[in-house]
Amino acid sequence: MEFVHKSVLLEETIGSLNMKPDGIYVDGTLGGGGHALEVCKRLSATGKLIGIDQDSAAIEAAGERLRDYRDQVTIVRSNYSNMVQVLKELGIPSVDGIILDLGVSSYQLDTVERGFTYREDDAPLDMRMDQRETKTASDIVNTYSENDLYRIIRDYGEDKFAKNIAKHIVLARTEAPITTTGELTEVIKRAIPMKIRAVGGHPAKKTFQAIRIELNHELDVLRDSLDGMIDVLNNQGRLSIITFHSLEDRIVKTMFRQNERPCTCPPNFPVCVCGKVSKGKVVTRKPILPSEQEIADNKRSKSAKLRVFERTR
After folding, report:
1. What share of the chain is helix, strand, coil (3-state, %, to 5)?
2. What is the H or E stretch that residue 65 is in?
3. What is the per-residue pLDDT across 40-52, written as a single tens digit (0 to 9) for each?
4. DSSP string computed for 254-284
5. Smallest Cα–Cα separation from 84: which of 130, 20, 26, 14?
6. Is the pTM for the entire model greater than 0.85?
7. φ/ψ bin of 182: left (φ > 0), alpha (ψ from -120 to 50), beta (otherwise)
8. Which domains does the chain carry?
């Protein structure tokens, strides 16, 4: 299947970088190269783009899309959590801007055999963003304890029926392993009252999100990476992050604020004595949202939020 992914908040994200033609930029979630291509169009011959992605299909698609800029582009197959190390290995001490477009790509959702979607019945329960990993969503569904399933569905899916869903999963797998997206969806449906299913969104959406986040360590990776990415920015360099659900957005918002105002002294102290110095400023006091036109053109952009941080050295 061709790698197709419509970049969300494209112009807003590129504009937020305040690009310098001779700068060095990193797209930490390269995907099909949509954002990266627009960065490359704005670079001079001395500018550089580093693209990072853990999905081999994305790497291949982006390489083709950026072929006209091959002399300025370096693509690395890795998780963006390794960005600082990747840059070090490339001999790049600092950069002028970083983009992260979090979540699942349209390609991953639409490629049935990747197992990300709850709208297909016969897809394997996979959900690996990096297919070099051996653990799959099926392992989580069939081996996690009822309490652990409840925890991730409650915390990562924010589903009020988490306890009942976990109970039904454990009960169902005693009869036979749950191996397809359709089987899991049917189990989830049985755990949610009919009247709720009739008026809410797809009953499996939150549980699938929770399992995907757990499998790919998405929130831990984000939380553990942000400080390092801010540290590697040049003066006035910007980190622009697009999130797609409240858990990601909350982490970005909180950590941006902490990097702007790191002081831990009690409010009644006349002067700061903790010694923690601000790394910069939050550019977006409120997140940038997609326009009504973009939402109409691309339904998957509806929940997108863009937040931007500017480094000050």
Report:
1. 45, 15, 40
2. helix 56-65
3. 999 999 999 999 9
4. HHHHHHHS---S-TT-SS--S-----EEES-
5. 26
6. yes
7. alpha
8. 10-107+218-311 (3.40.50.150), 120-216 (1.10.150.170)
